[in-house]
Amino acid sequence: MANDSPKPVPSSAAADDLDAMLARALGKPLPAAGPTEVPMAEEAVPEEVPESAQRCGFVAIVGKPNVGKSTLLNALVGQKISITSRKAQTTRHRITGYRTQGTDQFVFVDTPGFQTRHGNALNRSLNKTVLGAVTDVDLILFVVEAGRFNLADAKVLDLLPKNIPVILLANKFDLVHRRGELAPWLRSMQERHAFAEFVPMSAKNLRDIGRLFDICGKYLPQQPWMHEPDELTDRSERFMAAEMVREKLFRLTGDELPYTSTVVVDKFELDGAMRRVAATIVVEREGHKGMVIGEKGEKLKRIGTEARQELEKLWDCKVFLELWVKVRSGWADDDARVRSFGYE
């Protein structure tokens, strides 16, 4: 849990002239877009860091659906632990990732995008997860697309506590062609909330990620680390198996398949160096089942193959993956079934 020590006083936002704030953020040209693949965390961590020198804190990543939160988390952790796709509402769980750098240990909390369109049981569960994640952290990264802000962004911003520093993270900045036009946008954003910092960046640019660590580090309270330096997440391999199948399901079915489809792991076994996984893809209608299976089972086979390859890369071992598809009508609006499928 985050401690009650005083938060550092931000140096950049409230008192400064906004033009100066923008100039400081954009004073140096941003580097060209870096690699899009998330690298493994490789930097050396000191073997022993005295507790008196350690800093550790919680950093929540929030924003509307599809602004790049999961991509950002994966880059910050240095390994893929949160699935991504172009389909909205891909992230459905509170995913926690750890990164230890020097004397600092960051506990990053990725959240589902706040749901405003449907009030079913699944979306109520997702929104409860978002609200729970932002109330007891040391720092909040409010992720928006650079130069853009709409009603969905505003609803998320309204949820943020007033007593926790918030960094305005303008993601996808590499797609902004006229950066001079960002000053009026930033001025309007600062009128909405007294942001502690403004960080224009791309979550796919490794040098931008390094810069973000430097910015976030000063908000961590001085306290002992909560996790071992080489730990990356609190999620189990069983959970990751279900998530990887769900990612491939969404990526390969596109907008045809409703987002309410989910994946349940029925069996997870260690067999020597191999992992054996049996999972069920749950859909709401018979027609959706046909979309997932595809002609002669080719779509389901491809989902399984790509998920298996991703898991083998993640775990560095052989994986045997079996998939089935079942129809459970109305599950997303059934509180009990939503809980039974692992949603908080």
TrEMBL record:
Location relative to the cell: Cytoplasm; Cell membrane
Region described as G2: spans on this chain: 89-93
Keywords: Cell membrane, Cytoplasm, GTP-binding, Membrane, Nucleotide-binding, Ribosome biogenesis, RNA-binding, rRNA-binding
Domain of life the protein comes from: Bacteria
Gene name of the encoded protein: era
Organism, scientific name: Hydrogenophaga electricum
Family: Belongs to the TRAFAC class TrmE-Era-EngA-EngB-Septin-like GTPase superfamily. Era GTPase family.
Subunit structure comment from the entry: Monomer.
Protein's name according to its UniProt entry: GTPase Era
PANTHER family attached to this UniProt entry: GTPASE ERA, GTPASE ERA, MITOCHONDRIAL
InterPro entries linked to this entry: G_ERA_dom, GTP-bd, GTPase_Era-like, KH_dom-like_a/b, KH_dom_type_2, KH_sf_prok-type, P-loop_NTPase, Small_GTP-bd
Function summary: An essential GTPase that binds both GDP and GTP, with rapid nucleotide exchange. Plays a role in 16S rRNA processing and 30S ribosomal subunit biogenesis and possibly also in cell cycle regulation and energy metabolism.
Lineage of the species this protein comes from: Bacteria, Pseudomonadati, Pseudomonadota, Betaproteobacteria, Burkholderiales
Region G5, annotated ranges: 201-203
